CCHC-type domain-containing protein
Amino acid sequence: MQVSDFWPQNDDRAIHLKEAHALVNTLRSVPDRVRNHRVDAYVDNLACVFAWENQKGKDPQLNNIMKELYNFTVDFNMDLKLIYIPSKSNPADSVSRNISAQDCMLSREKFCLVDSTFGPHTSMGSYLAIPRVNGTCLSCGGYNYQNYRFCQVCGEKRWLPNEESVDHFSLDEYNDQKRILHLESMISSTAYNKKKASLKKELDTFLESRSKTMISATPEDVRLFLMFKDKKGKTQVHELNCPFLGKSKKQNCFCPTRLASGTVSSLMGQLKSLFDDCGKQGEWTEFSLLKQGNPVSSTVISRYLRAIQMEQSFAHVPIKQAKPVKPSGGSLSLPWSEGLRVSVTPRAMPAGASSPGRVTHAGQWILGADFEDQLHYIWSSFSALALDPGSPRKHSIALVGTPRWVDGKNGESFSFHMAQQNKPSKSALIHKKRKCDDSEPCREDDSWPRFIVIKGTEEKPISKISPFVIHKQIQSVAGTVKKVSKMRSGNLLVECSNKSQSTNLLTMSTISNFPVSASPHNSLNSCKGIIRDRSQYLGDLTVEEIGEELSSQGVTNVIRFQIKKNGNIIKLNTYLLTFRTPTPPPSITLGCFGIRVDMFIPNPIRCFTCQKFGHGSKQCRGKQRCFKCSDEGHEGTNCHSESSKCVNCGESHFSSSRDCPVYLKEKNIIKIKTERNIQLPRS
DNA sequence: TTGGCCTGAGCGTCGTTTAT
DNA sequence: ATAAACGACGCTCAGGCCAA
């Protein structure tokens, strides 16, 4: 029901008086609806709201209207509550800004001018300010201006004595209507519109079953409709442990069939268009008092689509129709992220071009700091193949992930783009895909972050959120995880059992409407290992070259140990490798030679200022002590004492001694920490 | 043959960067 | 400061494919 009225043009009262008066008039116009009721009225004027709430105001005129309003509520036994709504969110406001019928009227002077210039004319009826006179319609008996060709009351064509007069305003309504219908039918006869009409019918039926219409539908209704459609899909989405993972066509397994993510996206487009057509346009305003806009524009729906896309990318759903990829001159202009899934079929590797350590397998997950190198390699090898005229062109590259990067040093999230003008895309799907050759199953690798840190915000740290809510949220996002513990910083440390849990947790952005961020743990997801190249397979290769060769075996960084002897730097045959897995592999291959990998147990850090273990001099808050005599106030280089005393154990040896019992104890703690991959306090 | 699923091409819009 | 160029993205639509 819509009630509307207009103020006289000469009403120059202040807007708050008009608003208050309008409220009184509105209530008066619907007495039966408000009598004996509690009424919430949305008003876009704060002065009115405050005057009513406080039962007084500064403006006597406003107070008079409020008294009138009060009397009305008493007479009608009504409990009235005024709620403020900003003008831009107030649907009634937009109506009041529309052109009214009165606005469309010609003034008497303008009408006479038009009439004298163009002669007698038709239609417009009540939209003209001139009275209808001189002439009665034979059909309805209504009064008309004598030369009108059509009755101003019923629209019937009238016989006129002067048919020859020129009528510029007359329309060939019949033929125009016919043409409009023809044009309309052309539009509605297209396949797309037929589909849309069919979809609308289906949506109407669905909404009817929920006692809703398109006008009252919410994003939740739309999501339920999409889920209803989802059940009719024919794309089989395999579980991660299904042997048919990555296979196309229907397989003989119990994995569910769903709508392809592209179809869901297409459906969303059609639904959005349908809601637009019925007047529900613009962004969905979930948090305003009056929910309005297009429900398909809601974040509920876009998150649903993202989830579907993610689910199907994890399930390696192959793309049915494929198009060739055109490499853009070798320049890498892809947004990158942590946790991208790279899907490259083995045939994408040009024969002979891939060195043994660099083959990227289908379904491989690229994580962490070596991402850039790997992506460069994939892209260059792929480009090389695509540019090769003899290429069988049956390979694919697909990168799917979330554009987010976590700084390994500071643990901060920031967006990143390389060789890219614009910001990285929000879309998870980064590059077009080509037809997957499913002759070879996709291989899972285990380089996914097992330990995820979930941080709250300063306003709402994790500790302020109910543990039950946290538990439920983690359950809903990732299922039953291996372990959840609280870190000393107050953040949550979640240990995942499988890759999908890890990936799902990394997408978590809220817990109970409070923003949180999830990122891989900085140290627990990687480890270090030692290789001793006694046979000198590696010769004089640089660490960069070695790192590149070993990257496919999970190596993200290589450091070669060296010592200083007589002022000369001597390179040792011991290498420190960083792996992107929580534990190092027992061995790796250097080309065709296997070599054992030992756990790297770092030496305890001793502070050069206070000589205590566990921190460096940069973080030291203690006083300067001598490593020789343990006295305060001077360094060991300036020590003239003949006796020695350890700062840590008090025995007569230098604080730097490797035989110090405190040093040995520290070393043992670090060994336990490293071997069990646990945090220092627990070890 | 028909209807529905599925995907990619094309187009328009918007935001950002670069050139003038 | 402004225009042009560029890329990302959303939406529309057509056509291939497949099952009933």
Notes: The mean pLDDT of chain A is 62. Residues 3 and 179 of chain A are 36 Å apart (CA to CA). Residues 195, 198, 232-235, 259-260, 262-263, 266, 319-323, 421-423, 432 of chain A lie near DNA strand B (CB under 10 Å from a C1').
